[in-house]
Amino acid sequence: MTPSLQRTPTNRPRRAAAVQPDFQPDGEILSVTVCPAPPGAFVVAVHGEVDRSTGPLLCDRLLHHLRPAHPRLVIDLTDVSFFGAAGLTVLVTVREAAETAGVRLCLVAGTRVVLRPLAITGLDELFDVCPDVAHARLRPGDVADDDCILPGPRAGPGTPSSV
After folding, report:
1. What is the Cα Rg of the chain in Å?
2. Contact at 8 Å (CB) between 116 and 81?
3. C-alpha torsion sign, points 72, 73, 76, 77
4. How far apart are alpha carbons 80 and 110 in whole angstroms?
5. pLDDT 10s digits, 73-116
6. How far is CA 136 from CA 74, 95, 103, 131, 145, in A?
7. Which residues are within 8 A (CB) of 142 and not within 5 positions of it... i.e. 6 or more apart?
């Protein structure tokens, strides 16, 4: 006779078998919106999750908008809810293609979801990272490169400042 295991009832709720993705309103995990931003720029707004399954789509959409006729591409990542290693790969690939095409690339990011992976890998030093689209849309001559990087912690009163 084979022993059988019986489940004893508990008051705990059952755990889900798998985590369901957080879908966008139209049923997609990732959506990409592109709008021209004069003079000579495109703003690509990314919404949702950037992972292994959505990375190739995002990469294709970004590479499509690298054109010498539009010397500036702004990638708005403020509405990204997940940013995995595939997202970092996409950004590096697009950056290399942008340099080849003579297009200036700027990232808009203000959330930990995006900023943390960039900082951990050191890629935050490689990209122009702006806190909002308005700042990123300034023409290259209007703002120094250092002004486009998110500010770090500032020394307050009674706090030693670094020299």
Report:
1. 21
2. no
3. negative
4. 10
5. 999 999 999 999 999 999 999 999 999 999 999 999 999 999 99
6. 7, 16, 14, 8, 11
7. none
Residue type, 37: A
**84 with 51: CB under 8 angstroms?**
yes
Q: How far is residue 151's CA from residue 139's CA, in Å, rounded to a whole number? A: 20
Q: Are strands 30-36 and 41-50 parallel, antiparallel or unpaired?
A: antiparallel
Helices 85-101 and 55-64: crossing angle, nearest 10°? 20
Give per-residue pLDDT as tens, 38-63: 777 889 999 999 999 999 999 999 99
- 75 contacts: CB under 8 Å, gap ≥ 6: 44, 46, 62, 91, 94, 105, 106, 107, 108
Contact of 78 with 110, CB cutoff 8 Å: yes
Q: Is 36 exposed, middle or buried (0-12, 13-18, 19+ CB in 10 A)?
A: exposed
In this structure, are residues 118 and 109 in contact, taking their beta carbons and an 8 Å threshold? yes
